[in-house]
């Protein structure tokens, strides 16, 4: 016989069934037609629910009779509101958000397992919430696909070279993932951005934020900063050259001595003046050594003069935002060669631009100059470097050595 089934959304379905068919088998046929799981179906005949174990004939169902079908999903509005789209986003993000917010236990679990999603649920940006739900769905899909691929590799032909390469790659990636997870648990600070070391100083009476970099051999001041501090008039242009490192930057000259104030004490300091738009003042290794500085990371201070003065390193909030613009500094450093984080300016890479260099380290005159400067108490290697730097000029090399 034929019966007509009307669904909750007014879909009409005709079924050919045996009069002695059970209600459960009819639901199985409807599951194929409507994709509604058998367990979620509720069939009504003459307003009464039809039990799974009952027969159609026992219920009085006859040919061409009408049966109503209600699905549990359709009869429950909250459940429908909490369903998800194929991409993982919520069908009704507002209802989903309110449902999660109203369940304190669920919110506590969410804060523990996924704080970012928990914050989005508490926030007012539904678009952000939807994006996070899509991202979590994609991550789960990727993980499931990866697990399926790993399972397939277990049954791969052991003599298949490509399959063995994939197994090797999967094992290596698993080791990387485990290492990453261990780092997140035991060393989470490794994923945080490291703020460089800055201290408050005064150069020639003008306050500024000094970048402390023990990896940079020379102390550097930019042209604009030197002009602001009133030092540009003291710049010796005979020390022009090129600073070579990651790229290169033009050396405009050198200020042989000027006062800097660290804490409440003044110290003499020498500067290399660079045409550097991205670094105002860099306190390099030459002055760190000259003034017996200690970078104390335990107490987060710079100790000067063997400890007679201690100044704290600045917190991130106290450092001008332009100094923390890492992307901009990195781009400029790659083109200028100015040391930003790794101290790439080396005196051995400062090339004077005037005169002919040639090989000045040969001949008795050069050795005589070396011997004379060594007698003053400087190391032979330092003397040779200084003489090469100033093309054999003994007076300039001596001034350089005494200033360093």
TrEMBL record:
<dbReference type="InterPro" id="IPR001995">
    <property type="entry name" value="Peptidase_A2_cat"/>
</dbReference>
<keyword id="KW-0645">Protease</keyword>
<comment type="similarity">
    <text>Belongs to the DDI1 family.</text>
</comment>
<dbReference type="InterPro" id="IPR015940">
    <property type="entry name" value="UBA"/>
</dbReference>
<dbReference type="Pfam" id="PF24669">
    <property type="entry name" value="Ddi2_HDD"/>
</dbReference>
<dbReference type="InterPro" id="IPR021109">
    <property type="entry name" value="Peptidase_aspartic_dom_sf"/>
</dbReference>
<keyword id="KW-0064">Aspartyl protease</keyword>
<dbReference type="GO" id="GO:0005737">
    <property type="term" value="C:cytoplasm"/>
</dbReference>
<keyword id="KW-0378">Hydrolase</keyword>
<dbReference type="InterPro" id="IPR009060">
    <property type="entry name" value="UBA-like_sf"/>
</dbReference>
<dbReference type="GO" id="GO:0031593">
    <property type="term" value="F:polyubiquitin modification-dependent protein binding"/>
</dbReference>
<keyword id="KW-0813">Transport</keyword>
<dbReference type="GO" id="GO:0006508">
    <property type="term" value="P:proteolysis"/>
</dbReference>
<dbReference type="InterPro" id="IPR057273">
    <property type="entry name" value="Ddi1/2_HDD"/>
</dbReference>
<dbReference type="GO" id="GO:0004190">
    <property type="term" value="F:aspartic-type endopeptidase activity"/>
</dbReference>
<feature type="domain" description="Peptidase A2">
    <location>
        <begin position="208"/>
        <end position="247"/>
    </location>
</feature>
<feature type="region of interest" description="Disordered">
    <location>
        <begin position="328"/>
        <end position="363"/>
    </location>
</feature>
<keyword id="KW-0653">Protein transport</keyword>
<feature type="domain" description="UBA">
    <location>
        <begin position="363"/>
        <end position="404"/>
    </location>
</feature>
<protein>
    <recommendedName>
        <fullName>DNA damage-inducible protein 1</fullName>
    </recommendedName>
</protein>
<dbReference type="Pfam" id="PF00627">
    <property type="entry name" value="UBA"/>
</dbReference>
<dbReference type="InterPro" id="IPR019956">
    <property type="entry name" value="Ubiquitin_dom"/>
</dbReference>
<feature type="compositionally biased region" description="Low complexity">
    <location>
        <begin position="334"/>
        <end position="345"/>
    </location>
</feature>
<dbReference type="Pfam" id="PF09668">
    <property type="entry name" value="Asp_protease"/>
</dbReference>
<dbReference type="GO" id="GO:0015031">
    <property type="term" value="P:protein transport"/>
</dbReference>
<dbReference type="Pfam" id="PF00240">
    <property type="entry name" value="ubiquitin"/>
</dbReference>
<dbReference type="InterPro" id="IPR033882">
    <property type="entry name" value="DDI1_N"/>
</dbReference>
<dbReference type="InterPro" id="IPR029071">
    <property type="entry name" value="Ubiquitin-like_domsf"/>
</dbReference>
<keyword id="KW-0963">Cytoplasm</keyword>
<feature type="domain" description="Ubiquitin-like">
    <location>
        <begin position="1"/>
        <end position="76"/>
    </location>
</feature>
<dbReference type="InterPro" id="IPR019103">
    <property type="entry name" value="Peptidase_aspartic_DDI1-type"/>
</dbReference>
<dbReference type="InterPro" id="IPR000626">
    <property type="entry name" value="Ubiquitin-like_dom"/>
</dbReference>
């Amino acid at each position: 016989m034929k019966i007509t089934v009307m669904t909750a959304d007014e879909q009409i379905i005709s079924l050919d069934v045996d009069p002695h068919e059970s209600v459960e088998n009819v639901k199985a046929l409807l599951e194929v037609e409507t994709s509604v799981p058998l367990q979620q179906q509720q069939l009504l005949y003459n307003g009464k629910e039809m039990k799974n174990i009952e027969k159609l004939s026992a219920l009085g169902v006859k040919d061409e009779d009408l049966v109503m079908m209600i699905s549990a999903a359709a009869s429950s509005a909250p459940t429908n509101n909490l369903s998800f789209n194929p991409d993982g986003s919520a069908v009704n993000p507002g209802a989903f958000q309110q449902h999660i917010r109203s369940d304190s236990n669920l919110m506590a679990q969410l804060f523990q397992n996924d704080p970012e999603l928990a914050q989005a649920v508490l926030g007012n940006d539904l678009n952000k919430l939807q994006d996070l739900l899509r991202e979590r769905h994609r991550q789960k899909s990727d993980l499931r696909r990866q697990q399926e691929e790993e399972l397939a590799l277990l049954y791969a032909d052991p003599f298949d070279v490509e399959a063995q390469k994939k197994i090797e790659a999967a094992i290596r990636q698993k080791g990387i993932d485990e290492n990453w997870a261990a780092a997140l648990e035991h060393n989470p600070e490794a994923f945080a951005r490291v703020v460089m070391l800055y201290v408050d100083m005064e150069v020639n009476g003008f306050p500024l934020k000094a970048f402390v970099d023990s990896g940079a051999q020379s102390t550097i001041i930019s042209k604009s900063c030197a002009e602001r501090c009133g030092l540009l008039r003291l710049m010796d242009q005979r020390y022009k050259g090129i600073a070579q490192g990651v790229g290169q930057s033009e050396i405009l000259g050198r200020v042989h001595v000027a006062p800097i104030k660290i804490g409440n004490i003044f110290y003499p300091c020498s500067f290399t003046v660079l045409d550097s738009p991205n670094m105002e003042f860099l306190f390099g290794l030459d002055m760190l050594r000259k003034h017996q500085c200690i970078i104390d990371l335990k107490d987060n201070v710079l100790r000067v003069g063997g400890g007679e003065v201690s100044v704290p390193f600045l917190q991130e909030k106290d450092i001008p935002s332009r100094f923390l613009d890492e992307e901009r500094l990195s781009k400029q450093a790659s083109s200028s060669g100015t040391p930003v984080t790794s101290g790439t300016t080396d005196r051995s890479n400062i090339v004077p631009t005037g005169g002919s260099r040639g090989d000045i380290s040969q001949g008795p005159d050069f050795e005589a100059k070396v011997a004379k400067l060594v007698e003053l108490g400087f190391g032979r290697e330092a003397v040779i470097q200084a003489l090469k730097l100033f093309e054999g000029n003994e007076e300039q090399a001596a001034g350089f050595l005494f200033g360093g």
